[in-house]
Amino acid sequence: MALSVCEGTDQFADVINTLIESVDRHVNEVRTQLVLAVLLNEDPKLVSRRDKVFSQALVASISAFSAQLRCAIAGTFNNMKTYGVRPEEASKKWLEQSMSIGAAVIFQSMLNPNMPDENAMLEDSCIGINDLERVSFHFCAITGEVEPNGESASIFMTQH
Hints:
Elements: H1 9-41, H2 44-74, H3 87-101, H4 116-131, E1 135-139, E2 155-159
Antiparallel strand pairs: 1-2
């Protein structure tokens, strides 16, 4: 263990910052090792099941978001009809909200938690939805001409 004597507050701040960076680096290394240890000991069937549930939750959220996005771009999105808000204004507000805080995804189910099979499906759904927290979408400007329904996609997904 290295000890150092601080002559002034600037040097003390540097030592504290170095300590914080070192602790953060070690915590990240330990976290990575724990994830690897868990993955090595996980049942392949459970991993496959979780992957399937995640992909279903991802497709559902992408479908809902893209439908809302198309309506908002067309100026026809209106979830505030009861408040007397015009569709164009509601579309603009939805786009601004999505840009500033992201999209809110709500899942509903008619499964019965008292039935064992349906309860297991609900548990799987909860895990899949929680896994969506690490997903983000990045939109890029399209340069050049793109034909409708072409293969040039401007949406990229990353998982943290």
